[in-house]
Design goal:
Elements (H helix, E strand, L loop, with lengths): L3 E6 L2 E6 H6 L1 H68 L9 H8 L4 E6 L4 E7 L3 E6 L2 E6 L1
Antiparallel strand pairs: 1-2, 3-4, 4-5, 5-6
Helix pairs in contact: 2-3
Amino acid sequence: MNDHLKVRINNQIGYVSQAFVDKTPPLKEYFDQYKAYKSEQQRLSRVREEEIRDSTYQENLKLQDAKLKATREARKSEMIKKYGPTNGDKILRGVIWIGMTEAMLLDSWGSPDEINRTVTANLVSKQYVYPNYQYVYVENGKVTAFQD
């Protein structure tokens, strides 16, 4: 029944041929307007769905930002509590220095890719190998040298 249109008049359902509609200007105009109306309704529905998706995406971004901020604040609080305001701030910025402890190094730069360890009678020496050929040397738990 592709060449007929389903119609309802006074709760009665019937069919009208497309040829009859095409030959009757008021019917053709009515059905053309109806098709345009339905097309616009579908377009508006798609726009609303996109707006909802965009709104949901924006809300998720806000939640992620809030979680990230909370995580940063918790880490900042932890580092300041652990090392004091001056050293805690340096560690948060990823700064390393001669004399810092091995724990400070790990909190500042994280775990290295590799650790080369040398043990002698009086000394435990470690070479921390970080990405991009960055080396940090630790002796008896303290940073003694680094290459960057």
